[in-house]
């Protein structure tokens, strides 16, 4: 078996630490870093050196990046791809010299204004074709760096108004695109897992990959449910009106739980605040679902979290990650204790035990029709009062284990 810590598989993300400058919709850069703006390859490499130094200090086993995080965009697609490959060479050296492994690579198909009307769902076929080139390049670089997964977050895959949107056509485009991505993965022999990251409400008014259930319906429709899993993010679950553990349990029950983006949105936030996790009982409930599902195989815990914009000191990056890793380790320990204790699992089994009684098996035999079951229910004279199903509010039980 795996040891408990094998299920942590922490990753530091590139974008919140080395790309985001502290801006929000009302104000610009608050951080000063020697590589801002990283508009030359020289600065991009300086940034990479700082990033790998931070990975070393933290002793973190994985990292994750978008193409656009690590190289300045070129004047043409070909130049952008050349630069990405040059940065990948730079990474490969550092990875071989004891640096972290790649949890996942991904393409940024949301920041540039070319994607303002969508990436694969854009009404303009040239943008769809552009995306094909970007994802091919990025997936091949991820393969070269032995990435364990490849992520697609459809940041601009949604609409602002139905009055000028052909929703049916856009979903078809998205399905065609994802099918081609899967086909290309097999063509090049990339062994990593493809993951979709669901998110509702932002940046477009309506996001197509709203939540786990929506993504599963989409995958089923295009026959991709055995090819693609999900990267579930805490903040995105909250924005969708769920809890993190709900999204994890649902993904696990559908067989599509791949990896997690760990952060913390509290219940007041109307947007994705990407705070570092700080609540051990909440994290424990999430890892309880992960452990019940058997833990991670290709996936891990990527910190999709950023400093607050008043936090100007680069050392805060280290402190924030150290604190987050501590919170997650404690959460995982509590989750493992909940599982080992066995009382919760036992209580859960007991709630459904009625299905195993001879009476229930006879009444509900496989193949029985609604009329068969109704006839038997009436003949048995079932009690109209509830006879089971009472339960206490259980979430607080986690406090016994933290
Ligand atoms: C947005 C996100 C994204 C994704 C990233 C990789 C910029 O809310 O969570 O971060 O994690 O694009 O899919
Ligand atoms: Mg994320
Ligand atoms: Mg997010």
- Note the gap between the termini: 23 Å
Which ranges are low-confidence, i.e. pLDDT below 50, for 5 or more consecutive residues?
Answer: none
Physical arrangement of strands within the biggest beta sheet:
1-2-3-4-6-8-9-10
Beta strands, count? 10
Describe the biggest sheet?
8 strands, parallel, barrel
Percentage of residues in strands: 5-15%
Helical fraction equals: 40-55%
| H/E series | EHHEHHEHEEHEEHEHHEHEHHHH
Topology:
Elements: E1 10-13, H1 15-18, H2 41-58, E2 62-66, H3 67-70, H4 77-96, E3 101-106, H5 125-144, E4 149-152, E5 158-159, H6 167-188, E6 193-196, E7 206-207, H7 212-221, E8 228-233, H8 234-239, H9 244-253, E9 257-262, H10 280-292, E10 301-303, H11 315-341, H12 343-351, H13 358-363, H14 370-380
Parallel strand pairs: 1-2, 1-10, 2-3, 3-4, 4-6, 6-8, 8-9, 9-10
Antiparallel strand pairs: 5-7
This protein binds 3-O-methylfructose in linear form (3MF) and magnesium ion (2 copies).
One magnesium ion binds next to loops.
Quickly describe the structure:
With 402 residues, the protein is α/β, with parallel strands linked by helices.
Describe the structure.
The protein is of the alpha/beta class. The chain contains 14 helices and 10 strands. The chain has helices at 15-18, 41-58, 67-70, 77-96, 125-144, 167-188, 212-221, 234-239, 244-253, 280-292, 315-341, 343-351, 358-363, 370-380, and strands at 10-13, 62-66, 101-106, 149-152, 158-159, 193-196, 206-207, 228-233, 257-262, 301-303. Strands 1-2-3-4-6-8-9-10 form an 8-stranded parallel beta barrel, surrounded by 4 helices. The chain has a two-stranded antiparallel sheet with strand order 5-7. Strand 9, helix 10 and strand 10 form a beta-alpha-beta unit. Helix 5 packs parallel to helix 6 (167-188) and helix 9 (244-253) runs parallel beside helix 10 (280-292). The chain is globular and about 80 Å long. The two termini are 23 Å apart. 40% of the residues are buried. The model has no long low-confidence stretch (mean pLDDT 95). Residues 233, 235-236, 272, 274, 304 line the site of one magnesium ion (MG).
């Amino acid at each position: 078996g795996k040891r408990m810590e094998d299920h942590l598989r922490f990753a530091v993300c590139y974008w919140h630490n080395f790309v985001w400058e502290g801006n929000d919709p009302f104000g610009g850069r608050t951080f000063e870093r020697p590589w801002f703006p990283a508009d030359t390859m020289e600065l991009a490499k300086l940034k990479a050196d700082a990033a790998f130094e931070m990975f070393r200090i933290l002793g973190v086993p994985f990292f994750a990046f978008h193409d656009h995080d690590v190289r300045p965009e070129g004047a043409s697609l070909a130049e952008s791809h050349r630069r990405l490959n040059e940065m990948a060479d730079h990474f490969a050296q550092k990875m071989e010299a004891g640096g972290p492994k790649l949890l996942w690579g991904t393409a940024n198909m949301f920041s540039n204004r070319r994607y303002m009307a969508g990436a694969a769902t854009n009404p303009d076929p040239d943008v769809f074709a552009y995306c094909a080139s970007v994802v091919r390049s990025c997936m091949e670089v991820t393969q070269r760096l032995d990435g364990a997964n490849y992520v697609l977050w459809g940041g601009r895959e949604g609409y602002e108004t139905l009055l000028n949107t052909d929703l049916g056509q856009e979903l078809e485009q998205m399905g065609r695109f994802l099918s081609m991505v899967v086909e290309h993965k097999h063509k090049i022999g990339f062994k990593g897992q493809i993951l979709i990251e669901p998110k509702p409400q932002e940046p477009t008014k309506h996001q197509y990959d709203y939540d786990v259930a929506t993504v599963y319906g989409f995958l089923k429709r295009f026959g991709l449910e055995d090819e693609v899993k999900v990267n579930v993010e805490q903040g995105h679950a909250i924005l969708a009106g769920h809890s993190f553990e709900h999204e994890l349990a649902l993904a696990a029950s559908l067989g599509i739980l791949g990896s997690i983006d760990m952060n913390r949105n509290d219940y007041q936030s109307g947007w994705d605040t990407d705070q570092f996790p700080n609540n051990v009982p909440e994290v424990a409930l999430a890892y309880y679902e992960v452990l019940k599902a058997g833990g991670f195989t290709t996936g891990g815990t990527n910190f999709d979290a950023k400093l607050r914009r008043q936090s100007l000191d680069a050392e805060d990056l280290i402190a924030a990650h150290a604190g987050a890793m501590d919170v997650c380790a404690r959460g995982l320990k509590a989750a493992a204790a909940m599982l080992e204790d066995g009382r919760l699992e036992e209580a859960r089994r007991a709630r459904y035990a009625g299905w195993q009684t001879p009476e229930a098996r006879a009444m509900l035999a496989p193949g029985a029709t609604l009329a068969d079951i109704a006839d038997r229910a009436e003949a048995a004279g079932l009690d109209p009062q509830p006879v089971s199903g009472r339960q206490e509010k259980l979430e607080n039980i986690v406090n016994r284990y933290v």
